[in-house]
Amino acid sequence: MIIGGEHMQSIWYDVGTDQVHIVDQTRLPHEFQVLTLANMEAACHAIESMQVRGAPLIGVTAAYAVYLALREDAQSLDHACAALAATRPTAVNLQWALDRCRAALQSVAPESRVLQALELAQLMEKEDIAICEAIGDHGAALVESLWQEKRSSQDRLNILTHCNAGALATVDWGTALSVVYKSAERDIPLHVWVDETRPRNQGAALTCWELAQADIPHSLIVDNAGGHLMQAGLVDLCVVGSDRTTRNGDVCNKIGTYLKALAAFDNQIPFYVALPLSSIDFTLDAGVNQIPIEERASGEVTDIPGRTTDGLIASVRVAPEGVQVSNPGFDVTPARLVTSLVTERGVVAANSEAIASLLD
Ligand code: MRU
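^ thats the input. predicted complex w/ MRU below
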């Protein structure tokens, strides 16, 4: 992603100083702050507190965290994997990354383990960039054909997205937003409807910030506006990311995704899910009632953070004191509502056979 004219990633390793850096996403869009992850505990905190978030980025952060843990104690592989696995339960990329680290490192002699852990994290970082770019290319081909169908009757293509599945949710490019960026590179005139994505407002805070950096026309909408815009003919396609997709094509993503998919289905609007293979959980047959859904703090619902007129970042309470709250972080969109999955290996239907074919 380009920030202030400079290319940046959401996470990177500085060879000269042997430090892992992240962009602190809890400060955006108000402040751009880079943090250094000093050790594995700091990485756990970064994932839990959502200084880093988004399924692919959580996976790469976990790989670097394993390196940070081994750098302090080369025998701490099991402890590090257990601590990291407990941070956020829904995004399967976390477990995927830890399984990969464990498989690659457990039989390596302690004196070589640290360097190998670093090389593996660097590899996963690079792979994530290439994968996200490929997802964008495949998705842009879909967007291009839709635009060719519609261009005689309208002057832009309207895309609706939910949460932040952008460069900030990965190392670079993003998944859903990679499709947007790659479509813009093809000179398709785009406009993006950005769901604010309560309770943490990743759409308002992060997706709008990213799209502004990339100069992509966009409008912020409240989460309840999408259905109305679809009925009014103002949405041509939806594209979202995924935290975990099961073998049958059920898609778990940020809370509210399911309602958008229902509205898109009712209005015959294509609903695409852009995801890397590392977000597919091949151990689960179906998603509904099977994927662990993260229950998050009640304060995310009762209070809203933002910047005050005197420039401070603060929270205000919007609900009565003592109110009972339920705050599931994710929901599952059944495969029947998903038009296609856009992966680094191409576009496939959301069903078991098509998903299995991705492994061939
Ligand atoms: O709670 P978050 O902000 O980590 O949730 C992120 C999402 O739901 C994204 O859509 C998903 O991780 C895909 S990111 C490419």
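The two ends are 32 Å apart (CA to CA).
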